[in-house]
Write a structure and sequence with these properties.
By secondary structure, this protein is α+β, with helices and mostly antiparallel strands. Helices cover 26% and strands 33% of the residues. The chain has a single domain, classed as Thiol Ester Dehydrase, Chain A (Roll), CATH 3.10.129. A five-stranded antiparallel sheet has the order 1-3-4-5-2.
Length: 137
């Protein structure tokens, strides 16, 4: 499990002064990129190997609003992984109040340059092993 903090920017708010719902998905990505980089499994490394890891699905549950300058603490964990597909879970809280503001999931896979699914265990076993170690941290 990993925590990442994002400070809400003015441009991320809407006319009502609250964070626009689309930004939470961006923050999921910010946290995921940081999470993977710290484990030597980052997108840059994956892309250098000739693979990509697209988003297959997103699940979002908005609990409370956030506003400009709120600090949002994002807890991320790799919940599922099977060498081809992975699912991350996210919990976001207002850092100052501890209020739960969002829960969500994102699912991803690995594809080669031709857009076909890749089994990391078969083509990059060392990265596959690193990801298996991360499950449920």
């Amino acid at each position: 499990m990993e925590n990442y903090v994002h400070k809400v920017q003015y441009y991320e708010t809407d006319r009502m002064g609250i964070t626009h719902h689309s930004n939470y998905i961006r923050w999921m990505e910010e946290a995921r990129v940081e999470f993977l980089n710290k484990r030597d499994c980052g997108y840059s490394e994956v892309e250098k190997m000739g693979f990509v890891s697209p988003v297959l699905g997103i699940e979002c549950n908005y609990k409370k609003t956030t506003t400009f300058e709120d600090e949002v603490e994002i807890e991320i964990k790799l919940a599922e992984y099977n060498s081809v597909k992975m699912v991350y879970e996210y919990t976001m809280k207002n850092k100052a109040t501890g209020d739960l503001v969002f829960t969500g999931k994102s699912s991803h896979c690995f594809l080669n340059k031709e857009g076909r699914p890749v089994n990391l265990k078969k083509v990059v076993p060392e990265m596959d092993e690193r990801l298996y170690k991360v499950i449920g941290e």
